[in-house]
Amino acid sequence: MGGKDRHVMSYLQDFLFTPERVRQPVKALSGGESNRLLLAKLFTQPANVLVLDEPTNDLDMETLELLEELLLDFDGTLLLVSHDRTFMDNVVTSMLAFEGDGVVREYVGGYTDWIRQGGKLPPAPWEGAARQRTEPTLRNA
Hints:
Blueprint: H1 8-14, H2 19-22, H3 31-42, E1 49-53, H4 61-73, E2 77-81, H5 85-91, E3 94-98, E4 104-108, H6 111-116, H7 125-134
Parallel strand pairs: 1-2
Antiparallel strand pairs: 3-4
Helix pairs in contact: 3-4
């Protein structure tokens, strides 16, 4: 890891595994432990770019905090798609916002910074459809 040799036991302890749990078969691990094992495997490979799609889905709090720490220490580019606004505030240093009508803008900071800088979410497609159904229509008689 990071150009240094490490014993697997000590490495997995960084991912919140006790020595007893390290010796368990993978099928005996909980969902949170399985997710931490996947993260441990991911970070054994050298990389300068990570692409993560909704990485916080199905993570327990311990694993979420661990992922935040790992990404803050990651020395590379992170391309992240997430609905988790707090996670984005904690991890990202800039955002690309898809603002509708094919417009993409870069903002410094996380989600809260984007809002402060005037960013707005476009209306969801189904919101416009619902509005059209409820608005009365005029017909020529």
